[in-house]
Structures are given as structure tokens and as C-alpha cells.
Design a protein that fits this description.
Layout: E1 2-4, E2 7-9, H1 22-56, H2 60-78, H3 84-103, H4 109-132
Antiparallel strand pairs: 1-2
Helix pairs in contact: 1-2, 1-4, 2-3, 3-4
């Protein structure tokens, strides 16, 4: 029994069955990471669409802010889900977007080209992560 300020608490009251098994916790973490990696193409599609909108939208300031929000979210979450290269590429893209927003000027063709190149870097980082990430498959019993 543990004593806390003269009160008796049952041993391991927070974990009546004991702490989570390491293998189970690792499996849960692996599943979270796998789910995140599987959603990367959707996230990248949204970012690509927002980038293309810069070429056609009359209100590029609004389009830049929308793009910045999408890229910022990816930049912040990628490292948490074991995608550091994706996070680094997203952060580099975010810095360029922030520079565009801070300048107050409409992006010119050179800036749009730079944004396209940063998007390409992000696409390559996502493609590498998708190619290296394999989902464990159940063994067949023969």
C-alpha cells in the first residue's frame, strides 16, 4: 500500500491490470504512424490544390494564407508521426510562404516558381516516406 498524506491508496490503483505491455503500446504507436502515413497523399493533394489556386485565384493573399495553414499543420505533425523528412520539407515550404505573406506583395512568376519547387521537394519527401513505410501483413497459414 502507498501512503499519501496519511491516506492509504491501493497499490497501482491507476493500473489495476498493470501497465500497458510494451509490445501492445508499440503496436498502437505503429498503427497511429501507419494511419498518418496513409493519409499523407490526401494532405499533399490539398496542399497541391492550394498551390495551384495561387495561379488562378484573384485573391492570392487569401490563397497564400490557406496554403500556409495546410503546410503549417503538416510541418508541425510530421515529426510526431516519425516523418522527419516530410516535416523538414514542409517547414522549408512554410518559411517561403511566410516570406511571401510578410512581403505584402502579390507573388510574381519567380515566386510562384519557387513555391512550385518547394512543393516538389515536399512531394519527393512524401513519396520516399510512402515507399519506405510498409504495413505489416498477416502471415498466411499454409
Amino acid at each position: 500500500m502507498n501512503m499519501v498524506r496519511n491516506k492509504t491508496l491501493p497499490q497501482d490503483s491507476a493500473y489495476p491490470d498493470g501497465p500497458t505491455e510494451p509490445a501492445t503500446a508499440q503496436q498502437a504507436l505503429d498503427e497511429l504512424i501507419a494511419g498518418y502515413v496513409q493519409r499523407l497523399p490526401e494532405k499533399l493533394d490539398a496542399i497541391s490544390l492550394a498551390t495551384r489556386a495561387l495561379h488562378s485565384e484573384a485573391n492570392t493573399r487569401h490563397a497564400l494564407r490557406k496554403l500556409q495553414a495546410l503546410v503549417h499543420k503538416l510541418s508541425g505533425s510530421a515529426g510526431t508521426y516519425n516523418c522527419p523528412a516530410v516535416g523538414t520539407a514542409a517547414r522549408a515550404y512554410e518559411i517561403l510562404i511566410d516570406t511571401c505573406i510578410d512581403s505584402g506583395a502579390e507573388p510574381d512568376s519567380a515566386t510562384l516558381d519557387q513555391l512550385g519547387k518547394k512543393l516538389g521537394g515536399l512531394e519527393r519527401a512524401v513519396a520516399r516516406k510512402l515507399s519506405e513505410h510498409t504495413i505489416p501483413r498477416a502471415r498466411s497459414s499454409r
